Queue: 2 jobs
Job 1
Amino acid sequence: MAIGVTMRLPGASTAQYDEVCRLMGLRPHGAGPAGLLFHWAAADGDGMLITDVWQERERFEQFAREQIGPYSRQAGIDAPTDTTVYDVHNYNYRPADTISVPRAPIAVVLDYGGTLAQYDEVVETMGFEHGSVGPEGGLFHWAAETESGVRITDAWQDRQILEDFIEHQIKPHRAKAGVDAPRSLTYYAIHNYFTAG
């Protein structure tokens, strides 16, 4: 089962993050390591926020043990990482070789009070299937159940494309399904991303 992972790295800088990626041999905006479906990283307050989706939990744990931990320490990231793992209900992504470099990629994390059944209804009425490529301009999307509802995490080519999609697609279909507006919506300027090769 696919898992979503969020990692908060207090005190980490974008330069340290870039060094970790260099040590891993990963090229910005390119293909990620085997087993990774998508990754984005953004500066967040006094540190970094990283969001991944992996095909399997075991592969993520192996990669964290063998590469994330050692290379993070080598780059001077010493503070404990706050990691949360989710069972992914649905995701879609664009493979690395189909993405033109975005002008200003943006991520958004939304928390809804609704249910996964309501989420499925909204996705279905918009005409998207689970595991599909997703809408034009979207880089990545995943949804997971939380204790208080549904969390959706997206990455888009730029904020205008995302806001147009919210206004003309999500809002009308969300209203039809009886889903309230999100309780929280947070935007992040993406520093870097990887996707499956």
Job 2
Amino acid sequence: MKRRAATLAFLMLATAAHATEWAVYSNPRFGETIDIPPGFVNDVPAPENGDGLSFHSADGKAELLVWGGNLVDGDFKADGKSRLKSAIDDGWKISFQTGFVNQKHAFSGSKGDRIMYLRSIASCKGKQALHFRIEYPQQQKKDYDAVVARLAKSLKLKTASDCG
């Protein structure tokens, strides 16, 4: 019983800290905002073109990429299908995929001991898309399930400076 109480107290503290330490990343060029998990840092310079940023977990085992882009090779659906095909060609075994509903698309898969989740939303009247991609160790899946859910929910479109 004592051990259960200690575990519960730890989980309550971890949950409270976890809820308060999320940061918000905003990309004014593409109008993208997303919550960044606690402990994830960006320690490389932002690209000059303002496309997005990469973040990694404190232990270095997880990577989060957040970016926007112009859709030059077709529409949002074609872009999403191309990203999915590239993931499959790269060896990812896709286990989850949404349709292209409400200008959103997501898929997830595994490769070796890694899990990857990618979510995209159309923007700029179908001329651009916003994306995030997170990759993490399969043995940390339970830890990252809530993180992925929050990332997916927090990916939002605001006013973009590059929409014309």
